[in-house]
What does this fold into?
Amino acid sequence: MTDYSERPTWYVNAAAREFRTEPAPVEVLDFHRRLPGYEVTALRESPGLADSLGVGRVFVKEEARRFGLPAFKMVGASWAIHKALAERTEDPDFDWTFEDLAERFGGPGGLKLVCATDGNHGRAVAHTAKLLDLAAHVFVPAEIGQRAKEGILSEGAELTEVNAPYDDVVIQATAAADSDPDAMMVQDTAWEGYERIPGWIVEGYSTIFRELDSQLAEAGLEGPDVVVTPCGVGSLIQATAAHYRGNDRDPTAVKPSLLSVEPVEAACLLESLKANRPVAVQTGRTRMAGLNCGKVSTIAWPVLHGGIDAAVSITEDQDLAAVEELEVLGIDSGPCGAASLAGLETAFADPAVREVMGVTARSVVVLLSTESREANPVEG
It folds into this structure.
């Protein structure tokens, strides 16, 4: 049994708000708007949370339903697969529709999409494959929840269960894709030699933040002062940083503090930030299945090392309490999504972290809730 009690629980970087990086292309949101089933996800305000946390306003970006799926992952998978298929044509810069690409690559004997997942990414890849009339083969750790497996199968994908941690499942899925000339790996983590598709997935996540900009503006706000993001391999929080630390950002715009949250059983980003270099961690069992990752994505690391103000890890009990707290507030959030609230409460309990993050009684806080309870039901 691994003893997690000796692992650090937080990290701060006072210089993070001055960091700059490349933003996502502006056309990503327009692409998503053209897809069937696109709707802006809800931004829910909670005055009660604002009072208990001692800040001005708290909002939850509720990614409980994206393109009919119970998590945020479709915005990344759809954009990346679209870009990857366009690259296989004679005119990659043409504005290909899904119908065009399905005609080119779909049907019997067509392309197969392969990925590894803890649940939500695999279902998004399988769903996109179905829209494009492509086959899909999804590899999962055997220990993930039955509901997640059923969700992937419901999209018509082939499912392979592997008795191994997520990082080892990625290796097995990659080997399967490499051995099949008709297969294309679609993974949401990067490693040396495999970075283009993960980069497009990160770009796809930018739709969440462009929606958020408009929603906050409609509420009469210039922007958030704090944004909290759950972290697995780091791709979503890389997208958070790319948006709020983008070198296209107006210099007069609000510079929010960015907080990363991980389970103590899989705090690969936190450990890496503390070590000042990427390190792998031995993962354990956690109900936060989508965050149970032992290595930070290679393309995420430089951005997170420079641009994240604070990182914390949370326990299973803290996470379960946050799921229940959000449920009482009428917010549909599974264990990965509720990690944002648990992490914020953990960070704000420490005056040193709160000070570095620049939190005041007037601060506007946004929590990213990345999945519904349907995606990852709480068990035990």
User: Anything to note?
Assistant: Confidence is low (pLDDT under 50) at residues 1-8. The CA atoms of residues 195 and 299 lie 7 Å apart.
